[in-house]
Write a structure and sequence with these properties.
Low-confidence stretches: none
Order of helices and strands: EEEEEEHHEEEE
Helix content: under 10%
Largest sheet: 8 strands, antiparallel
Mean pLDDT: 88
Distance between the termini: 22 Å
Shape: elongated
Number of strands: 10
Structural class: mainly beta
Radius of gyration: 21 Å
Length: 152
């Protein structure tokens, strides 16, 4: 039917949301770098008939650094999270569960990504320009120990 999305159509993400241990972040502009990979272990073998072959198997998993850009606001949730590692050096308190939800044009979650034991490794302010009344952004780099992708 016209207007319906087929099961094999690409996701068109109209909005997304991020929660840090259940606290919703606002003023989101973009999230980039979401990804994971697994090392490939390659080993060479020889059959009992002397024929060489290569075997590949999965190795260690790694996640990419995720970059979050948002409009700077008065909210303390992100600032407090950053302070746990940068100012206090307390990684046990800094490791949080982060959930990223991608939503379709009706507001329904189409994919949920969970970052396990996530913490902030970098923060950067946008440019401050005298005489201009532009909004200031902040960029945060998030590291995590594991990344789980769920389909809704």
């Amino acid at each position: 039917m016209a207007g319906e999305t087929a099961a094999n159509d690409n996701f068109i993400v109209h909005s997304f949301g991020i929660q840090i241990d259940g606290v919703l972040l606002e003023q989101l502009k973009s999230v980039s770098g979401i990804g994971m990979q697994q090392d490939v272990i390659t080993s060479q073998h020889v059959t009992d008939k002397g024929i060489p072959y290569t075997r590949k198997q999965p190795g260690a998993k790694t996640t990419s650094s995720i970059t979050l850009t948002r409009g700077m606001d008065k909210s303390k949730a992100l600032t407090d999270w950053i302070k746990e590692t940068y100012d206090n050096g307390d990684l046990s308190k800094a490791r949080k569960g982060v959930t990223i939800e991608m939503k379709d044009n009706k507001g329904a979650t189409v994919r949920r990504i969970t970052l396990v034991n996530a913490w902030v490794s970098a923060w950067q302010s946008g440019d401050l320009i005298a005489g201009q009344s532009n909004a200031v952004d902040e960029t945060v780099t998030i590291e995590c120990e594991d990344l789980k992708v769920e389909h809704s």
